[in-house]
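CATEGORY: protein folding

GOAL: derive structure tokens
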Amino acid sequence: MSGAMLFIKEDLKISEVQVEVLAGILNFCALAGSLTAGRVSDWIGRRYTIVLASIIFLVGSLLMGFAPDYSILISGRCIAGIGVGYALMIAPVYSAEISSPSHRGVLTSLPEICISLGILLGYLANWAFAKLPLIYGWRVMLGICAVPSLFLVFGVFFMPESPRWLVLQGRLADARGVMRKVSDSEDEAEERLQGIKAAAGIDAGCNDDVVHAMRSLKGGKGVWKEIFLHPTPTVKRILFVAIGMHFLQHVTGIEAIVLYSPRIFKASGIDSKEKLLVVTVGVGFTKVLFILVATCLLDRIGRRPLLLVSISGMVASLCFVGVGLSAVSHSQEKTSWAVGLCVTGVFSFISFFSIGLGPVTWVYTSEIYPLRLRAQAASLGVAVNRLTNASMATSFISLYQAVTIAGAFFLFAGNALLAVFFFYFLCPETRGRPLEEVEKVFAHGWFQWKKERNSEGK
């Protein structure tokens, strides 16, 4: 959409406000999708929720690709947004539930890798299809998104169902079969299965037939009451951290950089459309490269170090962009050093975001919830993520018109500085723990996790 908007505005003759709405409406609709996805996935399973997300997104992509006017374009983007909400909720949850503790960081970061790859492919599509006639170019940019949706609809049938969801349904035999496929040995599979049963509140001595007859757990009934009306202190702390991470991921400026990077580079002094699209493709390549680096480090050095390095680097990068844009706006002539500072700041911001805050947010928030609450609590976090994302996307133009574009980036830098303290004091390390034990690091109150970690080290 970032590149397509340049051509949509010209073709459909829409206003700046309509451009903002077009940019942000997808994520407002993703909010609705994510809030319902948790309940749906507890009802029909993780696999079929992925199928449903793909079908919804397929319909939305086709509507955008064949849109004759602005109203149909907005309708397609809304439908696609619902599919995005489903996908963003279910992909990390499924990845976390299917993976072993030693590889959970890598596998749970795969959705973020694919998001970054998708952004890069979007930038490449902008560059490739920009040469088409105006009436076709942006429509192909958006309509081509239907192709990966089709692949996913059929590909998901070759994936196993989440063994943790199967346990919640009382289908222990099926869960045992999946665990054998994703474990290195029979003993490991059985040990992991017993841990999942314990987390689900199923007695280890119950045979499969007795458990299968238990229907009280089916469908995720009562989860919202447990989250909002009767949460335990541990659940309260987990929700605060998860929602805080999703909120901070976007108020630190990533949406402004990804969606409006052509405008940012134009404000810095790069005025050729061809150059704007080429530099934007470079942003996409940088994002993919550094998120691959993060994937290699998540299970080696842990979540906390990556988070803290990432957010600290983002603070400095945002200040670089702010200083560069401020210098450009106050200079009568084109200043090469200011342009270079802006470009360097944008690329370093993307690098630091992609090596930590981008992937770790999804990994961390998908692994800290208790099993029974995981899908619906994760959907709440994704809803906050999408609401914040949409708010940033639809307000960025208005924000920089009110406080200048340089002022907007100084504001993002201030938000990132607050995030440094949030992550340092409130986010314990989760690397290497079985999924059923991760919630225990939040069980003893704020700051107590440091004492527990130190005692474990001794």
Notes: The mean pLDDT is 82.
